[in-house]
């Protein structure tokens, strides 16, 4: 693998990059639609969970438009509330796993002086609680989410992160087109994570490099001779 210049910072998407979201979301999805049915807000058949997994990386409002386009605004608003509630409950109960090697790789990057950040289009509580509850929260300098900063795109979120952190060079690491777009839109080197399994064809087109396992990030870093 070709060596690359070591960045001052690395920016990580959360779902499908650090966190194996399907290990949490399948049960959460079931609970959300069971509650919507109980409350009479959505009586159509439960959409397949793959539709929700395939929407990760979008802004939340766009997710529900794709997952249940036939749902009322009230149903979509309630789904937002339930999604966060059930995600946090299931996380507290121990459901949901990081990808293999994530703690070790992040720990080594931090020990080498790389500043670590999360940049996600998710809700603030979720983006902060997943790393905390899975024991990697202290490795990050900051957590940036569309939910907290009300950004309208990942490009805008990453621009804000760079401005506030003062980082002069960074890599954007993620599994979605929005991550590649956010990196390219801010002049960053982009690493496409090609292991999540629920992305669309062409999702990572344009990434500078792709990795098939999270641990391959260290292959890139070690190639610069630090």
From TrEMBL:
<dbReference type="Pfam" id="PF00702">
    <property type="entry name" value="Hydrolase"/>
</dbReference>
<keyword id="KW-0378">Hydrolase</keyword>
<dbReference type="InterPro" id="IPR023214">
    <property type="entry name" value="HAD_sf"/>
</dbReference>
<dbReference type="GO" id="GO:0016787">
    <property type="term" value="F:hydrolase activity"/>
</dbReference>
<protein>
    <submittedName>
        <fullName>HAD family hydrolase</fullName>
        <ecNumber>3.-.-.-</ecNumber>
    </submittedName>
</protein>
<dbReference type="InterPro" id="IPR036412">
    <property type="entry name" value="HAD-like_sf"/>
</dbReference>
<dbReference type="InterPro" id="IPR006439">
    <property type="entry name" value="HAD-SF_hydro_IA"/>
</dbReference>
<dbReference type="InterPro" id="IPR050155">
    <property type="entry name" value="HAD-like_hydrolase_sf"/>
</dbReference>
<dbReference type="InterPro" id="IPR023198">
    <property type="entry name" value="PGP-like_dom2"/>
</dbReference>
């Amino acid at each position: 693998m070709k060596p690359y210049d070591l960045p001052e910072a690395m920016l990580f998407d959360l779902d499908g990059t650090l966190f194996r979201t399907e290990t949490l979301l399948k049960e959460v999805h079931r609970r959300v639609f069971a509650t919507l049915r109980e409350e009479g807000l959505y009586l159509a058949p439960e959409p397949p969970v793959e539709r929700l997994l395939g929407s990760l990386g979008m802004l939340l409002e766009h997710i529900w438009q794709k997952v249940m386009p036939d749902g009322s605004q009230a149903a979509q608003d309630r789904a937002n509330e339930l999604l966060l509630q059930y995600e946090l409950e299931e996380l507290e109960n121990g459901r949901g796993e990081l990808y293999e090697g994530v703690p070790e790789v992040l720990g080594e990057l931090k020990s080498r002086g790389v500043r670590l950040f999360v940049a996600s289009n998710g809700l603030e509580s979720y983006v902060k609680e997943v790393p905390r509850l899975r024991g990697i929260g202290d490795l990050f300098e900051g957590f940036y989410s569309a939910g907290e900063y009300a950004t309208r795109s990942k490009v805008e979120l990453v621009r804000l992160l760079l401005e506030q952190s003062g980082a002069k060079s960074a890599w954007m690491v993620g599994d979605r087109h929005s991550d590649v777009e956010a990196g390219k839109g801010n002049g960053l080197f982009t690493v496409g994570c090609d292991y999540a399994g629920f992305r669309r064809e062409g999702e990572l087109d344009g990434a500078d490099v792709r990795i098939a396992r999270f641990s391959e990030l260290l292959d890139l870093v070690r190639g610069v001779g630090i």
